[in-house]
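Please check this chain.
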Amino acid sequence: MTLILSDKQVEALIDMNEVVDCVEEAFRRQGLGEVANTNRTRSGGYNSVLSVMHATLSYLGRGGLKAYMSSKAGTRFALVLFDSADSTPLAVMGAEAIGRFRTGAASGVATKHLFGERSGTLAMFGSGRQAMTQVLAVSRVMAVEEVRVWSPNPDHRKAFARRLVAKGIRARVHDTPQKAMEGAQVASSITSSKEPFITDRMVKTISHFNVCGGNVPERSEITSDAVGLFGTVVVDDLPQAKLEYGDLIQAARAGTFRWESALELCSVVTGKRVPKGKTLFKSGGAALEDVAVASMLYDKALRSGIPYPSVELV
């Protein structure tokens, strides 16, 4: 039988502490050669785009794929999880919450291994649902003394700060990105900006930056000159980065960044590569993260004793 989990059921099961640990282990296992990750592919239709990404995690004995359709009506996500030993389809689940939590968790893992300090101030650029999981994940790997919030819409950033305060996280709203960056040691950005707004002047005092907002070549949150100030640039998946990550593609064209110098997060998590100087993590979302989290949620759902719906697909 194949388990069916809605997005609401997934969100009721998901916990950021568990997701951070799960995603960290997935990258560690990738560094040991126990993960096969495949680039995202896209097919465009009439006013719509279908995106598909998949991975096999041999250490779990599972593989899966996430697909999502984007149109004027919004974006809808679905994930299919398989047992790689006997090809059984184990679960079909909504994947919107999985995407939010695994993206945040990747930033948390990167912050743990690239920043490495026990505490600090976080500058947060963006105020949507993805921004919340960024803060939650970073706060799992270090004590966040304060979140300095900026996003383009004043009402949104104020509301976001109030939500953080309600969770017991000290937050302060700022009118410009420059002011939000002042005094921060770590930053995360996850916006829909088409043009870069993070400049070289803004990042001079930052120690670590998670750049998570775009995965198309035409978009960037950070200028090429700013990218050039980071001693170490790390990505979640290098082949995918070369195809999609506009922040780095544009910096490479400008000559402020070389692909040969980029590290994959898995190599840092395993200790095979050691970051130097100011660090930047460019995240676009890798399928291995989705499949690892989905596998963990599947096991958790079975242990819960809740009679989730299931169907006979084969």
